[in-house]
Amino acid sequence: MSNANIGWLFNKDYFNGLDYTDLAQKKNVDNINAKVKAIIQSTFIPNEEEILGSTRFQGTTAYPGLILGAGNTHELPSIEGQAILGFYFDYTSGLPVIAGSSIKGVLKSAFKHPQYIQALLDDENMDIKALEDEIFENADIFYDAYIIKADTQDRLLGDDYITPHADPLKDPVPLRFIKVLPEVTFLFQFELDDGKIVSKKKKETLFRNILADLGLGAKTNVGYGKFTISDAPKTEAEVEAEKVAMEKAEAEKKAREEAQREKEKADKEAKKEEGLNALLDCKTLADGFKLLKDSFGKKPKLTAEETKIVQQYYNKQKNLSKSDMKVFKKYGIS
Asked: pLDDT per residue over 152-166, tens digit each?
């Protein structure tokens, strides 16, 4: 399969090597058919495209495909099997590209139907004319959409046919043209601002819905140009930024948990100290035992100094029962 610049194959090489003295002769037909075959068999070679917009999503072409630049001149008279419609390719990469002006034009055309826009925004009182001006007459930028993924066989283009019926007395002659195949994914990019009427996030949702409904390119009325819209893949920078943010959030969480543990430990120590300081002043044994339980919990572990204070409290007691002695034993007193 060819890996040449597809735009060059279609717009330049296509017209080379023909015998223009008689275009209808068989060698020209064979030549043109070979050229069209080379174009549609070209495989996708990804380019390092610059990420331009802060708002991005992707659209994958649906059956029967996408027709771009059909209005460009490309026809040669009297050659059977030629590609009769023009096509729009990026000049540098030679790949099919959807011009930002075309994307903007389709989006703007939807505003001719205010109730449709209101329904998409779920706001029947929205001033659609004001919103149209806010989007299309201000700083929002509509970049070209370029291909980021081909079909399962790495192909971008295929051929299709129009069958005109201009003369009912003659058999129609199918006319060949080039299209972007189904399952080819484009990256749509925009630079959007938060407006006074809607946020940039709502603009993005609006654009997604309009493009999914209306499609792009030629012959949308017969099914071409439809897309399945989905989220754009994250850039390496975005993935790295998310990783850094997650690591930062995890570190902050651990720091908060550690600070909470230290606080609980300090509170526990303060409670123990406070309890021990009050122990010798307890009037009843029940109050003393409650204070010890509150200070040390069900499984007390006392330091030598703490045990010394409890021993002093024990020495003050008289007529202790066996159960009382059992309690003191838990705190190291025997």
From this structure: 899 999 999 988 766
Q: Are 182 and 61 in contact (CB under 8 A)?
A: yes
Q: Is 200 exposed, middle or buried (0-12, 13-18, 19+ CB in 10 A)?
A: middle
pLDDT in tens, 214-254: 999 999 999 999 999 999 877 777 778 888 889 899 999 99
Residue 323, Cβ neighbours under 10 Å: how many? Answer: 7
By the 8 A CB rule, do 54 and 192 touch? yes
Q: Which residues contact 106 (CB under 8 A, 6 or more apart)?
A: 210, 211, 214, 215, 216
The answer to whether residue 214 is domain-embedded is: yes
Residues 302 and 227 in one domain: no
DSSP string, 210-221: HHHHH--SS-GG
pTM of this structure: 0.72
The answer to whether residues 272 and 317 belong to one domain is: yes
Domain span including residue 211: 6-233
d(CA 177, CA 162): 8
Torsional class of 17: left (φ above 0), alpha (ψ -120 to 50), beta (otherwise): left
**Whole-number Å distance between alpha carbons of 66 and 179:** 6
CA gap 260, 252 in Å, rounded: 12
Is 138:192 a contact under the CB 8 Å cutoff? no
Task: Answer whether residue 68 is part of any domain.
Answer: yes
Q: How confident is the model at residue 72 (pLDDT cuts 50, 70, 90)?
A: confident
